[in-house]
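[Meeting: bench + compute handoff]

Bench side (C.D.) handed over the final construct sequence. Compute side (W.E.) agreed to return the predicted structure before the next meeting so the bench team could plan truncations. Sequence as handed over:
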Amino acid sequence: MSDNIHHCLLSIRSNYRNLSEKEKKIADFILLNPDKVIHYTINHISEKLSISEATIFRFCRRIGFKGFQDMKISLATEVVTSIKDIHGKIDEKDSIGVITEKSFQSNIKTIEDTLRIQEENLITKVVEAILTAKRIHFFGVGGSAFIAMDAYHKFIRSGINVNADLDSHLQIMSASQMTDKDLAIIISHSGSTKDILDLMQVFEENKTQTVAITNFAKSPLAEKADISLYTIAAETDFRSEALSSRIAQLSIIDALYVNVMIANKESSWSVLQKMRGSISIKYL
């Protein structure tokens, strides 16, 4: 892991779900204070968190490092790089061409970082859940609602029973009708929007299986969902992380869609051809 020196925080987020309670406490502390942790010794963190040095050492091994020092070196490089990126990415004095190029590069980095933390077994579980569910409903609030609609626009081509609503009232009405045979896929950058958490309460009551696509492993949504897929998006002065995460969310949806279409290729191909034939009447 030390060869991939910029991936400490990514590794913590990708492994978060499988950590013990004490390890999650260490992870939360590092995620919230990366710039401070690089100046601490293992003894300092042990005292601050009231967790043994041995547990901290095991945590470092769990996320892919040889030990605390190895992790701290990686974290230090990542923190310095992040500070440089935030303050050097886009400047108001940049030309239109430079700003355009930097915007594209930001999207590329978001997709690359998000790809690095994807776990094949989790993608496989989501694909299987989609294929076996009686119906699929995509949910999102605000900007995420349009990602949900994009997912609906894709998956309607698969022949699977799918739906999505933009209105929050319609969403909770639809959620109330879902059962333990259905699947809810919830898209939320923060994972802490009230409307989304209200939906999660309904899903829990109905025993509806849930998949979250979010940026934060320790968000209420990620903790409540049956399966969570994560995005990685950085914030700059001119570009919010929620804006950057959009391209990562779309990429995850694309990956799920293609996997589902291939796994269900015979019926999917038939539906796709029929749909293409119907749509053709819309063109001159």
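W.E. noted at the follow-up: Strands lie at 136-140, 162-164, 183-187, 209-214, 227-230. C.D. will use this when planning the next construct.
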